[in-house]
Amino acid sequence: xxxxxxxxxxxxxxxxxxxxxxxxxxxxVLVKTDILRDMVIVTLRGILTPAEYSLCETxxxxxxxxxxRSELVEHGLEQLMEIVCKISxxxxxxxxxxxxxxxxxxxxxxxxxxxxxxxL
Length: 120
Hints:
Elements: H1 5-24, E1 30-36, E2 39-45, H2 50-55, H3 59-75, H4 77-88, E3 92-100, E4 105-112, H5 116-119
Antiparallel strand pairs: 1-2, 2-4, 3-4
């Protein structure tokens, strides 16, 4: 049975939320996944804690939060790539991410080996 684009996006969102809870100890408020050509784009909202928001009031605090959060994700990168690979059944060839300390939102982009959207 062929899976729909929406069901795959929902499955990735659910799996990444579970990864956050298991690996980081808490999940995002909202996770949205979009498949676009050869990319899986994941938007995670509400990832910063109240303490992290208060740290972000200074430039040094912003850099600290970005660095710590980046290192945490990098430490779990193999698991993240495995999740997307398993669900999409496509090889993940690269990963890009950034966090907005203003909005508390993280964007993750998984670059796949082929145009996955075309196959759906």
